[in-house]
């Protein structure tokens, strides 16, 4: 059973949280990063996984649905549409195969932090048995390809293709879409399924372009230079001095693999991640095949409820559900006031983070290094990580941890390496594990213009923030649907979110078809009402994240709208219930159909 820390200890911990936060604040906020575009485009605008660019003739075609994105968003939307008889679909993606973020992210050790039994969708439909509870990236990518085959999506997909323009044609009631291959598609419905982790970003460090050695972003891993593979030793690094910049979810996974073979590894860390137990296990085929019908939908719902502390986590029981577990184990026998429950939640979070900080000491032998690796913030200030190899790597003699928080930051990249805290680190290779433009505008991520009715640019319509009904449809942009996170509910398991959206879109399109309607658009009044609903509940989350250490959850501690300001504050369980009620009511409330 869990025990909560005493109040005086909590006071001291919170003071430490504030001090660590304050010395990491950068007044530039998200502007401290630069987009991997323009003179830095070579960090993103190439495909190290494709043997060649496939040449083809332009395609001119009318389609019922055009989807941008061949990751889980596009795959699931196409799959759910096929279930309601909508199969005239075209998918467009810059990648060379299905996978989305799992196509691009092939760095050594890449793994999903959500259990595969919940994360990989359509397991019951396909009968596929994941190899491990927590799947590695190569298996997830292969599963995406399996789904592409299963739902006959390969003949309907234009790979190595970028959309350059999308314009609504009011007279035709269709979207006119052009690509960099000279394609011209006329689509009744236009769906955007480009995830937030789609456009790499780089730290805005002076001199990146001056480095004479080799460098790449983690999402464009260069195995031709490093040797090895996702599971194989990076033999090309045996005589190399390597710098890894970033210790977020990506860095946590790749650093142990680089440390295993590199001659020298310097890890540059601004903020430590909290690192919990992974404890991966093979999937038991007997257990898996014995599951009753509907088991995956039930398990995904149970995971959401357990993470949000709604239900017992005995069946799930992993690191994501630990805070909720501590809350349940410390619940009093008598009712609490909201203030008392809030204080207990704070103490429960400190207890979980105390365990994670103690875990560092149990693995890292050098006390000074161990102290630098301890996360001093609330658990969900940043995305929690889970790994059993990261912390022990810092006991290796070839690995150095370089603290670049506060005044010790990286001052520049030179021709020969990295300068931090007044010290030069000469290296042969720099790996930027610096993440993605999650906080950037939609325009930054998709790199093309979307024009609705009367030529209205989506960027102009969203100049004061996102404007949607239920995070899916937009007034003055008929028949356009956004599949992703924004003005809906944020869930740790992203595929649950997008699968629910895909089912919802399939319902809307099939209902419109059955009623003889072909144009779908939210009313201005419904859009305004939903925006008000979203923003009325954002205050509580904003208060929590304002006190967090900088990261993409809180706009790097700077001004501006965070991802939580644009989410449904009651959470994914309540949001899913709301959407279910909306469908059951049947009137398509808030939508104008014609």
UniProtKB/TrEMBL annotation:
Q: Which UniProt keywords apply?
A: FAD, Flavoprotein, Monooxygenase, NADP, Oxidoreductase
Tell me the cofactors it needs.
Answer: FAD
Q: Which GO terms describe its molecular function?
A: flavin adenine dinucleotide binding; N,N-dimethylaniline monooxygenase activity; NADP binding
What Pfam families does the record point to?
FMO-like, NAD_binding_8
SUPFAM superfamilies assigned to the protein according to its UniProt record, in alphabetical order: FAD/NAD(P)-binding domain
Residue spans crossing the bilayer: none
Instruction: Please state which protein family the record places this protein in.
Output: Belongs to the FAD-binding monooxygenase family.
Q: What is this protein called?
A: Putative Baeyer-Villiger monooxygenase
Please give the organism. Answer: Caenibius tardaugens NBRC 16725
Q: What is the lineage of its organism?
A: Bacteria, Pseudomonadati, Pseudomonadota, Alphaproteobacteria, Sphingomonadales
